[in-house]
C-alpha cells in the first residue's frame, strides 16, 4: 500500500502482514493487528520494539520506532475464546500430555554412530555466543524455557505473571554452583526476547553463560515414535571439556528432549495455567535444594536416577583419617586452653 510501512507480525507460529503510516501510533498498529489476528489490543504484547517518547506506549508514534520495511514484530497474546477455555476445567485429559516414556528408545539411540556423527557436526558448525565467562570448577545446568521457566500460552500479559514462581531465587541459588545455559527448541530471537521479558538477561544476582536454539538440536528416528528433534548435551561437552556426564544436568518439561542423554535429564513438571497456579507452584524452590545437594555430595550426576529427585538423600562424605586426627587435635587444644 502506497505511503504505508509494511510490517510482519509473528504470532502463534504464523506471520501476518500489516500496513501502517509513520504518523500513526502504536494504538493504531494494535488495531491493525486486531483485524489480522483477532487478538484484542489490550491483550497484545509486542516483544521486540522499544517505545520512545512521553505518554503511554499506545501514544508512541510509529516514526519514533525507526522500523524498517517488513520488520518482524514478535507478539504474545491470547484470543478471547482461548481465555475462556483456559479458565474452564478440562475433562478426560490423559495423565501425561505432549510426552512419552523414552527409556527403551534411549537405549537404542544414545550411542548410535549416525547420531553421534550428527552431534560431532553440531560441535564443529554451531556457533555459540558466550554471554558471560565460563567459570572453572562449576557444574552445568541446562534449562528449557517454555513450560519450564514460564507459561508461554497463558492469559497473563506481563513477564511477572508469565514467570514461574521463585524463578529468580532459583537461578540465584543455582548460580553459586553451576554455570547456567538456556536451550530452547525455538529460534534465537525468541530466546533473547523471552529472557528480556522475564528479566533473566541482566539480573544482578546471576549470569547466563550462553543460549542454544533449535539449530543446535538434531533429529533422531525412534522405532516407536518416528522422527523427533532432541537436545544432545554432547554438543556442549564437545565444545567445552570442563563439562561432562559427571557434572551436567538438564531440566526440561518434555522427556524426549534428552533422549540422547537420559541419565543427565530431569523432567520438570510443566508450568501451565499461570493465572491459576502462580501461587501454589513451588517446583523451582524444591529443585534448588536438589541442585545444591548434587553439587555438594554427588561426584557423578549420571549415577543418580533423577526421576526420583524428590526422594534423593545425599550420602555424607566420609572424613579421611587425617581429617579426623586434625579434629581430635583441635579439640585437645581447645580443652588445654580452657584448663589453662
UniProtKB/TrEMBL annotation:
Its main location: nucleus. GO terms for cellular component: nucleus. It comes from the Eukaryota. Keywords: Hydrolase, Magnesium, Metal-binding, Nucleus, Protein phosphatase. Residues 311-321 have a biased composition (Basic residues). The keyword Repressor does not apply. It is found in: Nucleus. Residues 311-340 are annotated as: Disordered. This is Ubiquitin-like domain-containing CTD phosphatase 1. The gene is LOC115880556.
Amino acid at each position: 500500500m502506497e505511503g504505508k510501512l509494511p510490517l510482519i507480525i509473528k504470532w502463534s507460529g504464523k506471520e501476518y502482514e500489516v500496513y501502517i503510516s509513520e504518523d500513526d501510533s502504536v494504538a493504531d498498529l494494535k488495531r491493525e493487528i486486531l483485524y489480522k489476528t483477532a487478538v484484542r489490543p489490550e491483550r497484545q504484547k509486542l516483544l521486540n520494539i522499544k517505545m520512545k517518547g512521553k505518554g503511554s506506549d499506545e501514544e508512541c508514534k510509529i516514526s519514533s520506532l525507526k522500523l524498517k520495511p517488513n520488520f518482524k514484530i514478535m507478539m504474545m497474546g491470547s484470543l478471547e475464546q482461548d481465555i475462556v477455555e483456559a479458565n474452564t476445567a478440562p475433562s478426560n485429559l490423559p495423565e501425561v500430555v505432549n510426552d512419552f516414556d523414552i527409556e527403551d528408545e534411549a537405549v537404542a539411540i544414545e550411542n548410535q554412530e549416525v547420531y553421534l556423527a550428527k552431534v560431532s557436526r553440531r560441535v564443529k558448525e554451531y556457533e555459540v555466543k558466550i554471554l558471560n565467562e565460563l567459570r572453572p570448577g562449576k557444574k552445568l545446568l541446562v534449562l528449557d524455557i517454555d513450560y519450564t521457566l514460564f507459561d508461554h500460552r497463558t492469559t497473563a500479559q506481563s513477564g511477572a505473571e508469565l514467570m514461574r514462581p521463585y524463578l529468580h531465587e532459583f537461578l540465584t541459588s543455582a548460580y553459586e554452583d553451576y554455570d547456567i545455559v538456556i536451550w530452547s527448541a525455538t529460534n534465537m530471537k525468541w530466546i533473547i526476547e523471552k529472557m528480556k521479558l522475564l528479566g533473566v538477561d541482566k539480573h544482578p544476582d546471576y549470569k547466563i553463560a550462553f543460549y542454544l536454539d533449535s539449530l543446535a538440536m538434531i533429529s533422531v528416528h525412534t522405532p516407536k515414535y518416528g522422527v523427533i528433534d532432541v537436545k544432545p548435551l554432547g554438543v556442549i561437552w564437545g565444545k567445552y571439556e570442563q563439562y561432562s556426564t559427571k557434572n551436567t544436568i538438564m531440566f526440561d518439561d518434555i522427556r524426549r528432549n534428552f533422549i540422547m542423554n537420559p541419565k543427565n535429564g530431569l523432567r520438570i513438571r510443566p508450568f501451565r495455567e499461570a493465572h491459576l497456579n502462580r501461587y501454589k507452584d513451588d517446583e523451582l524452590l524444591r529443585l534448588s535444594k536438589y541442585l545444591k545437594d548434587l553439587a555438594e555430595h554427588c561426584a557423578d550426576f549420571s549415577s543418580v536416577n533423577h526421576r526420583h529427585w524428590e526422594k534423593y538423600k545425599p550420602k555424607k562424605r566420609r572424613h579421611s583419617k587425617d581429617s579426623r586426627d586434625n579434629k581430635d587435635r583441635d579439640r585437645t587444644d581447645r580443652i588445654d586452653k580452657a584448663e589453662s
